[in-house]
């Protein structure tokens, strides 16, 4: 190909990209319509009351309640409008934030005919979102941007969408606002295309990842991978981070799994070679199954694997009437009633490969309200035609769900203990039953990890002369991650800890404090030394941390309070963190480790967040009542090797409860 042809192709591709961006940029602004209702809040309220059949005598009190009058909200509840009340003011409601307007908007957006007889009306939803946005509601502002971008209930308007996303960013620069703006810059939605700016926004979204709501950050991470692929950058660590974070099977997850499969099949990841070397023959598990199971673990695709090979129940509880047992099954009530009460179907397959079908009954529990199958009882027909107990699978963990699959004409029972504590997404278990009824177990235990640095973004104001500081924070981050994995609070060697302090006022019988640390530092660089308390407790398998700043020891002794009662009731989903440190650090309340570093006479604060194997580190300088970001980094606790082991529990063919 000669030089002129190459040049022509390059120019053509550039023009195609620019034209695409230009089309997105020049989409005209249009005003959404909602019948005759435009911007009059009174008309919006009246329409809502009409649609929900609220008596006119209560219109005034409802309006006050929606505008966050607590007395009016209580009166609505007493008037027996429970269903509407719970939709507008749900558990965890945040007053004075436009939340009620947003909730009504979502009622119109989704439609809830079965409960309140309210039909979907997205143009009206948009206007309610607009009212909420006036009160500084972030979610409403994001929703308006999404609706304008996608033409969802209103005409497509890219310029308007970009404007809404900018407004959302001004309200709160959280992970969703960063992701949406990144998408605008990547695709030229309402603004000029700028891949570098898009990538920076995506980084910020990922760094602000919130374990309670990771999907915007995940979307940003997928986009980072896409942009990195275009520049031929190494994306393997990003792929693994994305795979480990997303447990929902969607199009993006499938793309990630596909790439990781390619690394496995082609052994382009050195770790894969180590894993494949662990494969060893076993009479109860084929080599193909073992490798496929390991590949599933490596690619974080357990859900897809279990769905692909899943075996559906082929018998209903009505069929139980035809079954005769040698001895009644060891249930609290009879077999048929058990299946009916549990709303369970059951299985009749050749579980042990002897050419005859057995009956498999899933045994469930409801620990913590979580119903799952933790074992299977297998019954086999004897010479008299009666079914008697033949085998029982090994009990899985507290929250594990045991699933039946069929791989290459053989039945296996598999489980992923990701929901158990500690949360290890890669560990898997498979069980098989032989012709004598013995249960054989395959374990994939990952215990060797290495903390890998993915990337670091440094604030341009700290780009010169701070390499040593950033290097030191990375060294500490490795130590802090290791401490977090063992459930302890991290404190670097040069942190000035205060010993001999009683923490008795922080104890509570419902919580187990693993560690409390007090240390001193001039955390805000004002010339005065403060006292900082770091506390960690575990309850209900979740971690809760507290980071509070006190003026001095006396202030701590007088004002320190136990973590019990300080966690909002709707935030009992760890890891959760609290404390007045968040008055100074622009981060989600999900910090798991925090420490200070003295560098060139100033104190710098580093904060670490975690989501499964992914860690984000941010270092700040607090000075003159302002907080500046120094650097931001991403790490992955990457699996290095595994322990593949087989067990045949004693007396596994004689189950006991």
List the helices and strands and how they pair.
Layout (H helix, E strand, L loop, with lengths): L2 H23 L15 H12 L6 H8 L3 H9 L3 H7 L10 H12 L2 H4 L5 H13 L3 H13 L7 H14 L3 H13 L7 H13 L7 H16 L5 H10 L5 H16 L3 H7 L10 H12 L3 H7 L26 H7 L5 E3 L8 E8 L6 E10 L5 E6 L10 E5 L2 E6 L12 E6 L5 E20 L8 H19 L10 E2 L14 E10 L8 E10 L2 E9 L2 H7 L16 E3 L12 E9 L2 E10 L2 E10 L2 E22 L10
Parallel strand pairs: 12-13
Antiparallel strand pairs: 1-2, 2-3, 3-4, 5-6, 6-7, 7-8, 8-17, 9-10, 10-11, 11-12, 14-15, 15-16, 16-17
Structural commentary:
The chain folds into three domains: 41-242, Serine Threonine Protein Phosphatase 5, Tetratricopeptide repeat (Alpha Horseshoe); 289-437, no CATH class; 453-637, no CATH class. The chain is globular and about 85 Å long. An eight-stranded antiparallel beta sheet has the order 5-6-7-8-17-16-15-14, sandwiched between helices. The protein has a five-stranded mixed beta sheet with strand order 9-10-11-12-13. Strands 1-2-3-4 form a four-stranded antiparallel beta sheet, with no helix packed on it. The chain starts with a helix and ends in a 10-residue tail after the last strand. Helices cover 37% and strands 23% of the residues. With 657 residues, the protein is of the alpha+beta class.
Any idea what the CATH superfamily of the largest domain is called? Answer: Tetratricopeptide repeat domain
What's the oligomerization state?
Answer: single chain
**Helix share, percent:** 25-40%
Rg over alpha carbons: 29 Å
Give the tally of β-strands: 17
Distance between the termini: 75 Å
Report mean pLDDT, rounded to a whole number. Answer: 83
Q: Within the CATH hierarchy, at the fold level, what is the topology of the largest domain?
A: Serine Threonine Protein Phosphatase 5, Tetratricopeptide repeat
The CATH C-level name of the largest domain is Mainly Alpha
Q: Give the strand content.
A: 15-25%
What strand line-up does the widest sheet have?
A: 5-6-7-8-17-16-15-14
Q: Which sheet architecture does the biggest sheet show?
A: 8 strands, antiparallel
Q: Which structural class do the helices and strands define?
A: alpha+beta
Architecture (CATH level 2) name of the largest domain: Alpha Horseshoe
Low-confidence stretches: 5-20, 25-35, 367-371, 419-423, 653-657
Count of domains: 3
């Amino acid at each position: 190909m000669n030089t002129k042809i190459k040049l022509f192709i390059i120019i053509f591709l550039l023009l195609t990209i620019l034209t695409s961006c230009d089309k997105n940029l020049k989409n005209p602004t249009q005003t959404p319509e909602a019948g005759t209702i435009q911007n009059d809040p009174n008309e919006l309220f009246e329409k809502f009351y009409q649609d929900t059949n609220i008596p006119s005598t209560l219109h005034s009190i409802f309006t006050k309640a929606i505008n966050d009058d607590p007395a009016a909200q209580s009166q609505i509840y007493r008037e027996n409008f429970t269903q509407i009340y719970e939709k507008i003011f749900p558990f965890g409601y945040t007053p004075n934030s436009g939340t009620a307007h947003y909730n009504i908007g979502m009622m119109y957006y989704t439609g809830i005919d079965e409960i309140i007889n309210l039909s979907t009306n997205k143009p009206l939803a948009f206007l309610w979102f607009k009212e909420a946005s006036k009160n500084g509601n972030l979610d409403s502002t994001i929703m308006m941007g999404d609706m304008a971008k996608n033409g969802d209930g209103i005409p497509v308007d890219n310029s308007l969408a970009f404007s809404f996303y900018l407004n959302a960013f001004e309200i709160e620069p959280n992970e969703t606002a960063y992701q949406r703006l990144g998408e605008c810059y990547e695709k030229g939605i309402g603004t000029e295309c700028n891949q570098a700016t898009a990538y920076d926004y995506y980084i910020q979204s990922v760094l602000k990842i919130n374990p309670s709501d990771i999907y915007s950050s995940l979307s940003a991470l997928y986009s980072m991978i896409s942009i990195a692929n275009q520049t031929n950058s190494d994306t393997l660590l990003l792929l693994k981070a994305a795979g480990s974070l997303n447990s929902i099977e969607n199009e993006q997850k499938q793309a990630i799994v596909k790439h990781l499969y390619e690394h496995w099949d082609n052994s382009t990841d050195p770790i894969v070679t180590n894993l494949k070397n662990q494969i060893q023959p076993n009479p109860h598990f084929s080599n193909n199954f073992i490798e496929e199971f390991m590949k599933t673990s490596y690619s974080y695709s357990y859900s897809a694997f279990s769905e692909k090979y899943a075996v559906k129940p082929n018998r209903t509880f009505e069929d139980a009437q035809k079954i005769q047992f040698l001895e009644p099954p060891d249930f609290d009530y009879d077999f048929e009633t058990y299946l009916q009460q549990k709303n369970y179907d059951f299985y009749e397959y050749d579980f042990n490969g002897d050419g005859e079908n057995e009956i498999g009954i899933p045994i469930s529990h409801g620990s913590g309200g979580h119903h799952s199958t933790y074992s299977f009882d297998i019954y086999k027909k004897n010479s008299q035609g009666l079914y008697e107990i033949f085998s029982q699978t090994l009990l899985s963990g507290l929250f594990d769900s045991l699933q039946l699959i069929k791989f290459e004409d053989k039945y296996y029972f598999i489980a992923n203990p990701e929901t158990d504590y500690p949360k290890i997404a890669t560990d898997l278990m498979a069980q098989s039953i032989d012709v004598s009824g013995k249960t054989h177990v395959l374990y994939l235990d990952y215990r060797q990890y290495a903390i890998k640095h993915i990337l670091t973004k440094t604030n341009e104001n700290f780009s010169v002369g701070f390499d040593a500081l950033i290097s030191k924070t990375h060294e500490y981050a490795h130590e802090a991650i290791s401490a977090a994995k063992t459930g302890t609070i991290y404190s670097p060697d040069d942190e000035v800890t205060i010993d001999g302090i009683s923490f008795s006022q922080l104890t509570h019988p419902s919580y187990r404090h693993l560690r409390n640390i007090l240390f001193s530092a001039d955390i805000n660089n004002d010339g005065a030394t403060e006292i900082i308390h770091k506390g960690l407790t575990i309850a209900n398998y979740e971690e809760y941390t507290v980071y509070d700043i006190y003026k001095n020891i006396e202030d701590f002794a007088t004002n320190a309070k136990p973590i019990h009662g300080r966690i909002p009731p709707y935030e009992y989903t760890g890891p959760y963190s609290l404390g007045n440190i968040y008055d100074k650090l622009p981060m989600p309340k999900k910090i798991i480790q925090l420490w200070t570093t003295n560098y060139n006479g100033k104190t710098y604060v580093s904060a670490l967040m975690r989501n499964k194997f992914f860690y984000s580190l941010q270092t700040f300088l607090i000075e003159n009542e302002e907080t500046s970001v120094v650097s931001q980094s991403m790490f992955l606790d990457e699996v290095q090797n595994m322990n593949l082991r087989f067990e045949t529990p004693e007396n596994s063919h004689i189950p006991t409860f």
